[in-house]
Amino acid sequence: MLDIHVGDNGSVVLAGRFDASQAAKAEAFFDAVSGAVVLDLKDLQYISSLGLGTLVRVEKRLRGSVGGGLTLINVSPHVRDVLAYAGLDMIFKIGPPPEK
Amino acid sequence: MARFGLGGMFVLPSGENSVSGAGGLQTSKTFPRSLDALADIFGFIEAFFTETAIPDEALNSVFFVVEELFTNQVKYSRGHSDGILLEMRRNPDRLIVSLTDFDTERFDVREAPDAPTDLPLEQRRPGGLGIHLLKRMVDGLEYEYVERRGTTTFTKLLR
Predict the structure, then answer these.
(1) Nearest CB to A57; choose among B115, B120, B126
(2) Range B79-87, long-range pairs (CB < 8 A, 24+ positions)
(3) What is the ipTM of this complex?
(4) Residue B43 touches partner A, C-beta closer than 8 Å
(5) Do A63 and B136 touch (CB under 8 A)?
(6) pLDDT exceeding 70 applies to what percent of chain A?
(7) Is B36 near chain A, with CB under 8 Å?
(8) Is the pLDDT assigned to residue B7 strictly greater than 70?
(9) Which pLDDT score is estimated for A33?
(10) Which of B36, B71, B133 comes nearest A85 by C-beta?
(11) For labelling alongside B71, which of A48, A99, B57, B108 has CA 20 to 30 A away?
(12) Against a cut of 0.90, is the pTM above it?
């Protein structure tokens, strides 16, 4: 199950598992965001290829406005690996890894 | 129904089959052809990891590969209502996982071309990455197609 909400500091928080069954829910949420968006992945346990595809779509749309785009923070080793395999680590702005 | 695991006997939820023997501990279950089944599939895999003491490091990559194979089967074989069979076998040094789709067209993921991963964002298209990624997460990949039954099997070495 995926939980997606705006956190206390204004970042968008993804938590849980972002699998294919959650893509529609995530896309509906992201349709409402704009500009520069910080995406906090501290509690994201897992992301699938469909989840990645959703983030690519969001990034494309956000970069259509000046200064727009996603910044991924607190990226776990699993998500970092998947981004790297897909060459998306060169596309997204990625912040430091989660604190231990 | 009961099954014998590495550390003793386990009680199985209905619909699952599991045995141990010379080939290692194994389990299987048929899941409905729906993305809504993914949560149950993940739970089934997670339980097998726990019961057979497979290190957690392999869990997310197994989730990823199983989800990719399963969703492909759901998307591209819609003409019938048979479920999809998931089988797992744990040997001392490896996990072997198979997904079988019944009454389907032939589709060997090994033959799918790799996705370009060096394109700039404006040339990226959502989708198409799944099979490319799954090939990098497994240590072996096989496909068998017999009488319209397609089985993809992957191996994950346990380090």
Answers:
(1) B126
(2) B79/B103, B81/B33, B82/B33, B83/B30, B83/B31, B83/B32, B83/B33, B84/B30, B84/B31, B84/B33, B85/B28, B85/B29, B85/B30, B86/B28, B86/B29, B86/B30, B86/B31, B86/B41, B86/B44, B87/B26, B87/B27, B87/B28
(3) 0.87
(4) no
(5) no
(6) 96
(7) yes
(8) no
(9) 92
(10) B133
(11) B57
(12) no
